[in-house]
């Protein structure tokens, strides 16, 4: 366990950082800050922090930046920007638990897109392919449950304790709208992962890619804000909670979380890192009930459990593919390549 102690602690800290961002962003958006302005501020801070860090870390290994590379960065940022916009809208209309539950759909959607774009083959004879396909279907079913079925409240927050009894089926249009926004977030995030993998093959300087990502997202969100948000007061960082949330998002949601997860990826590989994603559901339940007054419903428990089962099925299939690829290369006397996968939360820290 000694070798895994620091990565273990690091991944727990990264999950707490993600849930903290969800809770803070929900609070400031409830106070009137739009998700577009929040995205602009947080990515601007992230870019300012990552510029010197990326140049320092990659000072000896900086591939030349061509026009096509910049176009790739811009496309990556556009997908990430759409993911963030949909994600924060989902957080605003839903709860922290709903958000962290549905975001576990990303591996399944990534698998679907990889098959559609022929980046991955679906072999019906291989157990790993069947596990990924079945896991994706199960995860999507879980997302339907957590979005459409509420059931009785199992845990009640302070504010939710005084509300009337919720129906078994979710008739709250905001809750269903949140589920749709978060599902759109997962689709955009999955497309982001596919594009990011392609870019990193040609430009393997991770933190420089992340810097340009934050830089272009800041520009894209600024343009959106200038078109959509005409009220100058909307840019205000008062009350102080807005400033705190923006600083937290820039420092912990971008620089800190990206750095921790990148380091853990290099130390342990993608399977170890992915194993911690469902932990965010438990953290969000506890913090949501304590600090946001959210209620935790039976539907959320059942749906989240189904999603996690599907998530681990997809994860097992990926791990099996890595193991088979390693054994295949080893039998040919070659060294297995280092596999690196990056989640959309590494950048945006939902």
UniProtKB/TrEMBL annotation:
GO MF annotation, one: transmembrane transporter activity
Residues annotated as domain EamA: 12-147, 180-315
Compartments reported by the entry: Membrane
Membrane as UniProt keyword: yes
Gene Ontology CC, one term: plasma membrane
InterPro entries: EamA_dom, EmrE-like, WAT1-related
Membrane topology classification: Multi-pass membrane protein
Keywords linked to the UniProt accession: Membrane, Transmembrane, Transmembrane helix
Pfam families, A to Z: EamA
Keyword Transmembrane helix in annotation: yes
Name of protein: WAT1-related protein
């Amino acid at each position: 366990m000694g070798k895994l102690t620091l990565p273990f602690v690091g991944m727990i800290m990264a999950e707490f950082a993600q849930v903290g961002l969800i809770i803070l962003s929900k609070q400031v958006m409830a106070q009137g800050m739009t998700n577009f302005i929040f995205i602009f501020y947080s990515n601007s801070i992230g870019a300012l922090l990552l510029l010197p860090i990326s140049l320092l870390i990659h000072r000896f290994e900086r591939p030349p930046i061509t026009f096509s590379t910049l176009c790739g960065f811009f496309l990556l940022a556009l997908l990430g920007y759409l993911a963030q916009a949909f994600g924060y809208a989902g957080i605003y209309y839903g709860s922290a638990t709903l958000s962290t539950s549905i975001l576990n759909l990303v591996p399944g959607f990534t698998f679907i897109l990889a098959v559609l774009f022929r980046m991955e083959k679906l072999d019906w004879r291989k157990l790993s392919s069947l596990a990924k396909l079945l896991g994706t279907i199960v995860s999507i079913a879980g997302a339907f449950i957590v979005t459409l079925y509420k059931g009785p409240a199992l845990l009640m927050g302070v504010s939710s304790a005084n509300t009337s009894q919720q129906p078994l089926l979710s008739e709250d249009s905001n809750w269903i709208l949140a589920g749709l926004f978060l599902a759109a977030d997962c689709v955009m995030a999955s497309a982001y992962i596919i594009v990011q993998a392609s870019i990193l093959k040609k430009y393997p300087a991770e933190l420089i890619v992340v810097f340009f990502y934050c830089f272009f997202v800041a520009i894209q969100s600024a343009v959106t804000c200038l078109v959509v948000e005409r009220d100058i007061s909307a840019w205000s960082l008062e009350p102080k909670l807005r400033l705190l949330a923006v600083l937290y998002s820039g420092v912990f949601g971008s620089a800190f979380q990206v750095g921790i997860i990148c380091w853990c990826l290099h130390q342990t590989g993608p399977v170890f890192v992915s194993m911690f994603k469902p932990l965010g559901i438990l953290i969000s339940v506890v913090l949501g009930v304590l600090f946001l007054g959210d209620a935790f419903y039976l539907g959320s428990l059942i749906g989240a459990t189904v999603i996690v089962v599907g998530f681990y099925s997809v994860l097992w299939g990926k791990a099996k593919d890595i193991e088979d690829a390693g054994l295949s290369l080893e039998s040919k006397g070659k060294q297995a390549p280092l596999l690196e996968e990056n989640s959309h939360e590494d950048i945006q820290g939902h």
